[in-house]
Amino acid sequence: KFIAVLENFKYVFRGGRAPFLGRFISSIIRFMPILTIGSNGKVQLKKFVRNKESGIIEIFKQTKALISCSENNKIGIFYGSDISPALKLEKMIREDKSIKTDEIILTEITTIMVAHTGPGIFGVAVTNCPNLE
């Protein structure tokens, strides 16, 4: 399961994956979307945040909720071109003793992914946790 923050919808629209009305609305409203993949395998909008800091905090909260379901978890923290939110997330996760994980991996995502999501993407992927919805 994963949860990610996009800087904006610009690259999603550029790739033709969103309707014109959505493009118009996103040009007016400056929020960062938080996305996840549902049990049906489709990308779902989880919520919006106002800025990168709010996104980091929300991703941390979601990660904490995911990890509470199991002790044998692996966490992957991914980022586009800016490593700083990923490093902040890693620090927050390591410092929180209620999060039980076997391994934390920090990785940059591929340029193909960045082309469709934008360079400001960051997020968390968690394994061995069946309860994310």
UniProtKB/TrEMBL annotation:
Gene3D superfamilies: 3.30.1180.10
SUPFAM superfamilies tied to this protein: DAK1/DegV-like (SSF82549)
Xref: InterPro entries: DegV, DegV_C
Protein name listed in UniProt: DegV family protein
Organism: marine sediment metagenome
